[in-house]
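User: I'm preparing a small set of examples for a lab meeting where we compare how different chains pack in three dimensions. I only have the primary sequence for this one, and I'd like the structure in token form so I can line it up with the others. Please keep the answer compact; I'll paste it straight into my notes.
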Amino acid sequence: MSDTLVIRLGGPHPEWVVVDAAGARVAGPGILGEPGAAAPPPTGRSLALVPARQVLRTRVDVPVKGPAKVLQALPFALEDQLADEVDVLQFAAGARADDGRVPVAVARRELLDAWLATLAAAGTGVGAVYSDADGLVEVPATATLLVEPDQLVFRAPGQDPVVASPE
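Assistant: Understood. Below is the structure token output for the 167-residue chain.
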């Protein structure tokens, strides 16, 4: 399996690291697109991690089948739970879980456009965009806490990550 370029957005400059299939660092870390900084080596895959505090992660019951129909139904299934109008949001759905619910990520479309513009300005693109909470892997029988100046991400065994402000 090939290596993956992981680009983390949200700080003053996009940061990068290359990891192997097991998640071990192969190259980096580095700053993406900074003059004089080392460029990441070519990889078979690339992805971006964006700030978890700017991505709503939830699960929802959607009675329709098929990826296209699920995506069409998500705004209607979630509109009562969202502060923004659904037409300014971007929805992404994961694979239906064993309990029948669909995992969903929701972000403001303007934020997604800004993240993609940042990557384009640095001369790179990615195959997928994830919340950085998705990078906090589940470890059996272990609670994990990521502490950063602007967010806390907590993951209990068997649970989805929870994001909070340090305040």
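A couple of notes for your slides: The CA atoms of residues 31 and 71 lie 34 Å apart. The mean pLDDT is 88.

User: Perfect, thanks.
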